[in-house]
Queue: 2 jobs
Job 1
Amino acid sequence: MSSGKGSVRGGAVMDRGFDCDVLVIGGGIVGLSTAYALTRAAPGLQVVVLEKEHGTARHQTGRNSGVIHSGIYYRPGSLKARFAVRGAAEMTEFCRAEGIAHRITGKLIVATDRAELPRLHALAQRGRENGIPVRELGPAQITEYEPEVRGLAAIQVATTGIVDYGAVAERLAAASGAEIRCGAEVVRISRRAEGVAVATADGSVLRARSLVNCAGLHCDRIARLAGDRPGMRIVPFRGEYYTLARPELVRGLVYPVPDPAFPFLGVHLTRGIEGGVHVGPNAVPALAREGYGWGVVRPGDLGTTLAWPGSWRIARRHWRYGAGELHRSLSRPAFAAAVRRLLPAVDASDLRRAPAGVRAQAVLRDGTLVDDFLIREAPRTVHVLNAPSPAATAALPIGREIARRALASVAVRA
């Protein structure tokens, strides 16, 4: 019980009835960046991060192609555009200052069909509106950058790079000074006027002045545990990757022109920081929120997805696209055929299975795939309800924005 006395910690007050000032749920890159931003904005603030796994960055953060995105794809003025452009520069500087291996490689976005040319030109214009240096290329110029790649036209984006986001997350955790508790699955949340109490599966209870929900694949569940109605559900999409047996075929990063109807970038080629080339991902419905293979089925997760009206509306609206993705998931030759649009020298024997990722895609009741970052506030609580790619790229500015909102809900006494 609190004695009514408190100690000032960098502008926040810690009463003895509280275990910390801010409690962050989720030890991925967004949660860790938020903890990092909190302790820098208010030195001495007590921050605890709860992560249900036995280590940080085990899901979306540690299972992606490691690209530092430029921000070219995103609608000017959107949170994605603003945070990605700023985040790419900040991520590069953070890695340089912390000695984290990274490289600014640039990338090509390649049109292989005449129908894609208007979209490619529109992307170039969008990039310029977002302040990104772009160069439009013809077929001969494409081969100067990527001798094995074929296309009708391309955009060269100079500010794209590569990094190991798991290493970034590890450094953010250490630099934040926050207490990181792994193996701490949240099972109950009680929110009162004076603060928030969170119970974990091992029976522990922590009391905090403010709660931040950065739970990624489980963020909607955490929001409901807190007594809020998020108005969306996480529908998991698995992204399957291959590695290229002949990495010498690709020098850097090569992307197709994305379909504007979907928040996915299509199968692309990414030379990673370790030197290998990732091919993928596709996007297929996952049968569990952590369903990294077809054999992983969790009836509770699947039932939640099927019970959400938006899931059925997606299926009706986009069944042709989905059928193609499923075919490529089940057929390596079909996947290779998709890659050959960009890289004609590839065949199925060049593809080696690599670990898959799962995207936490927020879907509204009407079937809308939420495209931008979605951050909502409730009393003493901040919920991050959609933080897909380029969230890792934009982690530092996103973390500051979440921290700003969380600090506003922490009671400050002189």
Job 2
Amino acid sequence: MATDLVKRYGTVQALDGFTLSVASGEIVGLLGHNGAGKTTFVEIVSHLIRPDSGKVSIDGRPPSATRGEVGVAPQHIALYPSITVREHLELYGKLAGLRRTALSAAIEDLAAVLRLNEIMDRRTGKLSGGQQRRTQAASALVHRPALLLLDEPTAGADLETRQAMLDVVKQRAGEGAAVVYTTHYLPELTELQATIAVARDGRIIARGPSDELLRDLPGEVRVTLDNEEQIAVSASDPAAALIDLLHRVNRPVTSVDVRNPSLDDLYRSLAVTDAS
């Protein structure tokens, strides 16, 4: 999809050789601190801005030739406050080329999936934050795009909104959509069974299935003794480390906690390695 993208804003290097591909039916969780280049990448692929160099290809074509095949939910709410939820979906569906019957069916489907039925005729400026998030996502999804770019789609959302969003993303990927999903809430990527891409300083520094990326990271074993003293050990094989620790302690153990490596550990390890 994106190859060697470079983008500068004056002295700021937003992208520095950013390369990322996403297959049909794949959800890629794009991780990175603020300033890593995630939003700039999304804006280039969605044809909102142009890179200084590098190439973007969507199904073999440039972004300018793929109108109606890309759906974008930006990080910040970008709705027209004076029109209704229904009017938003009609607008974006028509812009993508949907005709009356197909558009009505798509709107009805999304209203059910994203729990919008009760607010369809309310102006978006009067909606709660979670309702606005769902409306914005529905605007990106209404035309069933082949590529979905979801930039922090659940930021500040309530639990109902978050779960509805995850359910529809999984559904669309199951139907063959390629999905780029940026988030700071890493458990979402576990639920989505996403592959992982980690961005830092405008480039991708790690890419692959989460189990492969986590394979060589240490987990942690923590035991609590009867005097409430805790002993924690970092280990690549937490189960073996627990057995060894239980053999070595000479006091009764009141609790045991075994923690396998997580995506948080992965990001921290890559950030430290890349910065050193």
